[in-house]
Amino acid sequence: MQAAARLLLLLLQLQLLLFLLCGSYAAGLDCALKDDEISCSSEEKCVKMRYVCDGDSDCADGEDEDPDLCLTYKTHFGCERGEVTCKRNGEIECLKVLQYCQQTDPPCEGNVDPKMCKVLIDNTIQRFSSIVVPADGIPEPSWRESELLGDDLVANFNNTISHPDCPDMYTIVGDQCLSVFSVGKVSWGEARAFCKMIGGDLLTFKSVTHFSTVLQHLQHHQLTTDFWLGGRQREKGRGWNWIDESPMVLGSPYWAVRRKDDCQVRNVTTALHTTRQANRATCYHYQQAPDLTPLGYCAALSYQHYFYMTDEDCLQQKSPLCVAS
């Protein structure tokens, strides 16, 4: 009877894994260049190619108006709009930029920046400063990059959701069994539901040592996703609590620092219990999460901030970080 129950549990976990994986991929938008569309890298949104570099930001982070991208995109090299000159086998012709990038044996000779080719081959608008291309200037096909990501997933499997001393879907991190489910991305509520379905709950931190151990594990295995934690602010201004209702420690060394366009003066309270402005009322642009006006009401570990904690919109898509009960 126990064997049958265990088999049923494994089947349910496999179905859940497939559901999350399929749901993650299904959530992605199918933007097609043949339909004059390209996707934003900062959000799930398709943008018409004619709106790229038109002076108005259509993507959340404005990558469609990136100056370096637009310098290349608006250069026509004597051809029609959207076409560039391609020299191959001693002949010169005008081609669509994507066709230019796809030519091989021999490739096109011309002035198109290889980074522009990567944008078009990936069909995703990207800031040029974030794009890395090989030394020979020819971007790798996107399917090859996808296969490399698959190899990384297999290599990290035993370090994220498998260990002989832990339940299924968990691995050892310090003295706990954690499920570092980096391959699925869901909202905070869905992440907590997932953790409960596999016999745990979202991770909470009880000490700086515990926090440091988890960060070192994520960094050592070079994970690059954001993770939901079991912390939240139920109501604005009511303080941050873990899911067991114990208070969350604010400030260093747990919470990330963000740079703001506006600045704030910091106050300090002296040993005589008087409050004064710090450093002659210097106005600082760097502020520590969570903000007085939070960006969101759920706590996460942010890869952008080296896995320090940030306040995030609870409906954002991030990976569950579960601890076994």
User: What name does the CATH topology of the largest domain carry?
Assistant: Mannose-Binding Protein A, Chain A
Question: What is the strand tally?
Answer: 17
Global geometry = globular
Mean pLDDT: 81
Describe this entry's structure for a reader.
The structure is a single chain. The longest helix has 25 residues, at 2-26. The protein has 325 residues and is of the alpha+beta class. β3 (83-88) and β4 form a beta hairpin. The chain has helices spanning 2-26, 67-73, 97-102, 114-122, 142-160, 188-197, 208-220, and strands at 37-40, 46-48, 83-88, 91-96, 124-125, 171-173, 176-180, 200-202, 227-232, 241-242, 257-265, 267-269, 275-277, 283-288, 298-302, 308-312, 319-324. It has seven helices and 17 strands. The chain folds into two domains: 33-143, no CATH class; 158-255 and 290-324, Mannose-Binding Protein A, Chain A (Roll). The strands form five sheets. Strands 6, 7, 8, 9, 10, 15, 16 and 17 form an eight-stranded mixed β-sheet that branches. Strands 2-1-5 form a three-stranded mixed β-sheet, covered by helices on one side. The chain has a two-stranded antiparallel ribbon with strand order 3-4.
